[in-house]
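Justification of resources, computational component.

The compute hours requested in this renewal are based largely on the per-chain cost of generating structure records like the one below. Each record pairs the submitted sequence with a full structure-token output. That output is archived, and it is also reused by downstream analysis tasks.
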Amino acid sequence: MQPVLVMKFGGSSLADAARVERAARLAVRRRRQGHAVVVVVSARAGVTDGLIAEARAVTPRPAPREMDMLLTAGERLSSALFSITLNALGEPAISLTGSQAGIITDDQHTNARIIEVRPYRVRRALEEGKMVVVGGFQGVSFRKDVTTLGRGGSDTSAVALAAALEAVRCEIYSDVDGVYSADPRLVPEPRRIEEISYQEMQELAEAGAKVLHPQSVEFAKIAGTILYARATDDADGPGTVIRNLEGRIRPRVVGVASEERVVLLTSRTRAPADRLPLELMELSARHHLKTKQLSLHRSSNGEQVLSLIAPEKENYHLEAVLEEIGASLGDSLQVRRDCSAVSMVGAGITERYDILLEAARALEEEQILPLACHTSSFRISWILPRQRHEEAVRLLHERFIE
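The structure output for this chain reads:
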């Protein structure tokens, strides 16, 4: 069998019949260059949001299992149309769902993690000389239920398949020609990053950058799969290469990412035996509330403070969960809905205090007052009032990158 190449196309690359054909012709070109080609597709732009809106019109708290059944329809539509197009171009092709492709997940509906890939049917189709088109974002749990991998999960499908098939590389196509130092809608002239490490890319993705899903980068790092992020309209352009750069880069700020709409939940209590902070964690886990960051501390006067940050876009049932948590915790719970998260990402970003101090001073000079700050080896994240979030992104990008 020829060396395997996995190509993933985002929703903007499949928005209409003409764009589907353009992407299909690119896949055919790669096949004729000597590759066994597996294509992974997202739902068309706007389809998933439309399905979510329809479910919420019925109930503010749709059942997670049924949401998975509903939302996977978008990727099945894309994979079938892509396969039909390939066959019309004279290349034998077959479309497969995530479960047919052997993507096995845990049973965490709407935010499942891949635990194993058994690509037997994909391999058989490739050996028969066919191109394979897989609906991304989806798999099947060990309970035999359809599951989804979280928003942007088609990237994870592609990288997991590339690892399982020992592909020579995995190409991620969208309407952007690589990974940029900031969102072009917020920063007028962000820089295209030519090369970025797995760790930096994963942190950027976790912080809100839209090019790749964080779990996909995690899979690539484990398997050593080199990723290429490119534009569908510039398929042979340089794009951005994501690979292992450990030990080869100095401390730096490589990008500024943001999530415009996050919720800050804070539980406070002074009673020594009070378990309200623990109850907030239990309620969040029970209702599958996806959180980005968590902090828990006890002050010298005995006050316990637990803070959770939940992204609005990744929690389909947020309103109902907040209502139930509020009813359980009462006055001990504070909910801030007017928040955004802005993050600076780079290798060794917290090795010295100078980057953190300069960022804090820059925000203070502009009277942008953070509600919270969290750090890791590769990220400094600020929780800010939403009305200042765009200003903060531009300010930090100008100070540390431009």
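The chain has a mean pLDDT of 91. The radius of gyration is 22 Å.
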